[in-house]
Amino acid sequence: MDNVTIVAVVSIITAGATIVLGTLLPAYGEMKALIKALESITQQPDASNVLSRNLFVGLAMIESLAIYCLVISIILIFTNPFWNFMTTAGGK
Asked: Is 26 exposed, middle or buried (0-12, 13-18, 19+ CB in 10 A)?
């Protein structure tokens, strides 16, 4: 197995792991935030507007982590700098 193949295999495995962790962990965080927000709204219905606004801001920040992981995976698959280095340098 030459170095170009090793870089390709490691890039694909890393992109897959990034997508798996980048979707599971933010989804878990969003679930926990939603549970706590709903518990708080049921305990204090008068503060539901403030709690909802803060929940949406928090969910947006958590969701941005998943988007960053998607971008990193796309970079690893389509514009991998290590792949370009290995193919131009003749990394055999």
From this structure: buried
- Percentage helix, strand, coil, to 5, in the chain? 90, 0, 10
Q: What is the pLDDT of residue 51?
A: 93
One-letter amino acid for residue 15 of the chain: A
Measured distance CA(52)–CA(38) in Å, rounded = 9
Residues 10, 19, 75: CA angle, nearest 5 degrees: 60
Nearest to 43 by CA among 51, 54, 55: 51
**pTM assigned to the model:** 0.75
12 and 85 Cβ atoms separated by less than 8 Å? no
